[in-house]
Amino acid sequence: MPAVLSMDEIVNAVCLHTADRKGVNVRDVQVELSWDEDTGFTAEVWTQGRSQYLVASNIVEAVLRYLHTEYNIRAYPEDVRLELEDEIIAVVND
């Protein structure tokens, strides 16, 4: 049975990943996930007064790291699929 990460967990994953990469406190990172027919899944990330857009592969990278650090699950990019239901979720195949 595949694991499913909620939108809140994906936001947490992107926040933690961004904070670590930029060397800032996780409380100083804001994330807004979105889906658009033309661009697919994206995240707008704000740190230190600047905005940055992440594409789906960047979001998946953050999810992979989150899975490993929070759940001790080692997964590969091809194991993670972003989906749009009532909210954006990440489905992780085992």
UniProtKB/TrEMBL annotation:
User: Which source organism does the UniProt entry give?
Assistant: Paenibacillus stellifer
UniProt lineage: Bacteria, Bacillati, Bacillota, Bacilli, Bacillales
Checking InterPro entries in the record gives: Uncharacterised_YxcD
Tell me which Pfam families the record gives: DUF2653 (PF10850)
Query: What protein name does the entry list?
Result: DUF2653 domain-containing protein
